[in-house]
Give the backbone structure.
Amino acid sequence: MGPRLTSLPAPHHGPFDPFSRICPGKGVSAGGRDGHASTMAKYLVNPAGVRHCRELIDAHQYVVSSDWGESQPSADDQNAFLDNHSWDEYEAWHLGLTDGANEETKARYAFVYGDLRRVHRSGLIACVYRAAEWDHKDVELAAHDLLQHLDKTRA
């Protein structure tokens, strides 16, 4: 008889988050994917972010091919940006607003799409993916529309 196989503990089936720096609020509602109750942030489309992204695309201020994991702004990058820019300028780099979060806090802004200088196509793809994954349909559609606009602009 061969080696005896023992049962291993079940893997954690909680939310997998390869893009955790893109948006906070990774929990799922009761009966969600992992079957555990937790709260999920609600996101509203940020008109200032959509407008700024579209303006940058129209001005050809974008990166077509990048590794979003390497390009997305880190917490230190965001803090440095805030040291030299207003909260309104920071807000413009995000496609989502966290419903109920305090103004002028980083928790208020979600779904960053660029490196705080240029739009990244990979950032828009990540926004579409994350918003779709967690059923934030309005943000998903806004990001998808911007991605299509970028692709048409560069064609």
